[in-house]
Specification:
globular; alpha/beta; 6-stranded parallel beta sheet; 9 helices; 14 strands; Dihydrodipicolinate Reductase, domain 2; Rossmann fold; 8-stranded mixed beta sheet
Length: 332
């Protein structure tokens, strides 16, 4: 039985706490935060035996096996490093960090202490993505030719500007899925061959990128276009185009549900095929089970389709380059 410390009491921590309670291999041991009223309310809601004000107590608690970091992106690297120094496995929310310098600090910390780490791209732990990889590899698409993805959610009012805006709050989803598709169909090395061109709008409210678009070309000629915004809407889409047909997500790719998750295969010549994956649990539950499985097998990182450490670094490199181009061009 793994004992968890939850750092943070926001919306996402509630989703993870519920998932921990659903698992027979994990239990909530302590919750930590800086707001005493919020921490104690969270403790009561989930009947957690312990709490701490501030994070050091939870990070150094000898009874804690796994630390979940449900806090803004800019503190992920420091808290991960503290957890690793105390020998804790860490599940830290996406995005990995907000800069590549922070990302390298995080990597150094977990590798030097030989501790488990996984970035909380929870959707990739859902069995939908094992099925996706099977479809990508069964030959029906032919050669990969293009990828299109977008994620829009009007959430700017509730996000912390220190988290660096839409790219790190939402753009990480289509970017990480594009990364998985390219890696699965074109090999481990192809993602690094990209060239990209990004544009964006800067928020009048906090100076971060609020709307962003990017076009990328990989070394084998595959093209990708992604769009992310946290300033309007509530919409999603992701399409994978091959030489023999198109695979698209009908349901939200980044929020798999306990019910039917729906892919649709549309060959250029043939009948449309609807593909459903249903497990009875959401992506947060499967993320907890993924952590349990990897720790039981003595691993220090996840296995695909969940992100390995190098996968998270490659995704961050794409996001930071995209952000830099948006900022530079917005200033012109």
């Amino acid at each position: 039985m793994l004992r968890w410390a939850v750092l943070g009491t926001g919306f996402i921590s509630n989703a993870v706490a519920t998932a921990i309670q659903q698992s027979d291999g994990s239990e909530l041991w302590t919750v930590a935060g800086r707001n005493p009223d919020a921490v104690q309310a969270f403790q009561r809601q989930y009947q957690i035996p312990n709490h701490s004000i501030g994070y050091e107590g939870a990070l150094s608690d000898p009874n804690v096996d796994v630390v979940y970091i449900g806090l803004p992106n800019h503190v992920h690297h420091t808290l991960t490093a503290q957890g690793a120094a105390n020998g804790k496995a860490v599940l830290s929310e996406k995005s990995l960090t907000t800069t590549m310098d922070q990302a390298h600090q995080l990597v150094t910390a977990v590798q030097s202490h030989n501790t488990f780490f996984v970035e909380g791209l929870m959707y990739l732990a859902h069995p939908l993505y094992q099925r996706l990889q099977e479809v990508l590899l069964d030959g029906r698409l032919g050669e990969l030719r293009a990828i299109q993805g977008f994620y829009a959610a009007d959430i700017w009012q509730v996000t912390n500007p220190l988290g660096r805006g839409t790219l790190y709050n939402l753009g990480c989803y289509p970017t990480s899925l594009m990364h998985l598709v390219v890696q699965t169909m074109c090999g481990e090395e192809m993602f690094a061959t990209r060239r990209l061109s990004g544009f964006g709008n800067v928020s009048d409210h906090d100076g971060t990128i609020c709307d962003a678009a990017v076009t990328a070309r990989f070394g084998n000629g595959v093209l990708a276009s992604l769009h992310s915004t946290d300033s309007y809407g509530m919409a999603h889409g992701f399409t994978i185009s091959g030489s023999k047909g198109v695979l698209r997500f009908v349901t939200n790719p980044w929020l798999p549900v306990p019910g039917a998750n729906h892919l649709q295969w549309c060959p250029y010549d043939g009948e449309v095929e609807d593909i459903y994956v249903e497990t009875g649990y959401d992506a947060f539950y499967h993320q907890i089970k993924m952590v349990e499985q990897n720790l039981s097998q003595g691993r220090t990182e996840a296995q695909r389709p969940s992100p390995r450490l190098q996968d998270s670094v490659e995704i961050m490199a794409f996001l930071t380059e995209w952000e830099a181009q948006c900022l530079n061009r917005a200033a012109d």
